[in-house]
Amino acid sequence: MPAQNLIYADTSGNIGYQAPGRLPIRADGQQGFLPTPGWDSSFDWQGFVPFEEQPWIYNPRSGYIVTANNAIVNDDYPHFLSRDWDYGYRAARIAELIEERIAEGPIAASDLAEIQMDNEMPAADTLKRAYSSFSTDDDALQSALDLLADWDGQNDLDSAAAAFANVLWEHVTAELVAGHGGDIPRDDQSRFARVFELLLADPQSGWWTEGNSASQQELLEVAANQALAEIQELQGENLANWNWGELHALSLTHGTFGESGIALIEALFNRGPYEASGGSGVVNATGWELGQGYETVTVPSMRMVIDVSDWDASTWQNLTGQSGHAFHKHYTDQTEGWALGAQYAWVYTPEAVDAATTDTLILRPTE
Length: 367
What we know:
This protein has 367 residues and is mostly helical. It has a domain at 6-85. 32% of the residues lie in helices and 8% in strands. α1 packs antiparallel against α2 and α5 crosses α7.
């Protein structure tokens, strides 16, 4: 199996984490991201990380474990594992929300289902701060900036402010990298949110002036005007018609027939678009790519909450449905629930399974 994160919990109250898999020990200075000369043995793997040295934790003092594509080791760890970690915003936000629930009283399974749907955008606070003292004679732009100022930072489905904020984020980041020949990647929005936060505190940084602008203020103004023009083109001039869910919609494309190039066949197998909340670097990890439009391109394909005190109280939800047959009623019967964060009973005991059963499939061998 791939070396996925493995999380453990049992009915005695123990929890744990284990990094599994055969993790190679690479030659000095090698990280495995580029081809190496296979005929030179100095580039050979030096064996594998011993299992007892692989990252693990058991019953941490915090009482919880969070994995959200974040780094599982720091620079003190003796072996190189990866550099493809999420920058950590999602993990930090999950920990923050869990701590809040713990402070309010016993945390419940329903709290975790709610946390999975948290939509706070990594750059929200910094964007709001960047434009907090910004004013303009353009009434339409000022109305949009007022919308931003009152925003709660959540990329919710029906949020007009989130729609403008994400379009603004696209243009702010594009302007920041404009002076670098487009060579600066914008693929990790959590990381870029941190970069933007640091740059905002440094108005004299060359990042503000190496592109199309002469100052921090001018770049922010240019980006705001560009964002207003784009969102008006996409969703009209009436702020009441702006919403993030429509901009960030998810189209479900069948892996074979859905990409056949034959419109009639594609229409039979593809579904959507479905309006989606969340975003990149968000706990509700419906990712989109800066410079590539706002549509959802990566998703949490399944959400689940397991209640170890009562297995029958566990819940789950699949992105599409339980059937791979395009004309079956269960082909996409969970997609709307997925978009709204609904979860469904995932019963475990034989008695609960019998009570929940509506259809039974019996397979008999031929004589």
